[in-house]
Specification:
Helix content is 63%, strand content 0%. By secondary structure, the chain is an all-alpha fold. The relative contact order is 0.20. The protein has seven helices and no strands. Helix 6 packs antiparallel against helix 7. The two termini are 21 Å apart.
Length: 163
């Protein structure tokens, strides 16, 4: 069986949370002044986080102009990232040389980015976001329960271990 199911389940969980975050972002922008997301509470506000400049990291870092079609929100980037995880067991990934190394690299990048966003959340925005915490939990779980075990003992694309 291997780690295929762990990787896919975590990828799907990340996609679901990303879809919810995207829905909240859209409703905050287009839903009117009375919309209050379920993730807003007395102990944290996802709407404050999703409305901050950090929600569009590519424009914040000056990589793309603010408001351009490539100024993707973190929710859209998350959907893309977690979709890649879901595609890991497919033949498409099997065509790549050492796909388990690529999975580990993507997962390490996700955890590194989570650490950056956790810093932003705690020390810059001084807020808590349950949706964001879920993203980070998925990222760390993918690394420790999916990517590292698959890297150490490739089972999904086993032939790539000898390449």
């Amino acid at each position: 069986m291997g780690y295929k199911y762990v990787i896919v389940v975590l990828g799907l969980a990340g996609m679901l949370v990303s879809a919810y975050a995207l829905d909240v972002e859209w409703k905050l922008k287009h839903g009117g002044p009375f919309y209050k997301p379920a993730c807003d509470s007395s102990w944290g506000s996802c709407s404050a986080v999703f409305s901050s400049e950090y929600a569009h990291i590519l424009s914040l870092w000056g990589i793309v102009p603010k408001g351009s079609p490539l100024d993707l929100s973190l929710a859209v980037c998350g959907l893309l990232n977690y979709a890649v995880y879901c595609m890991y067991p497919t033949r498409l990934f099997g065509l790549l040389p050492k796909p388990h190394v690529l999975l580990l690299f993507i997962s390490l990048a996700g955890v590194g980015f989570s650490c950056y966003l956790l810093y932003v959340l705690k020390f810059i925005l001084k807020d808590f976001c349950i949706v964001c915490a879920t993203f980070h939990a998925v990222n760390f779980s993918m690394l420790f329960f999916g990517a590292i075990p698959e890297y150490l003992n490739p089972t999904v694309h086993a032939k790539s271990k000898t390449e």
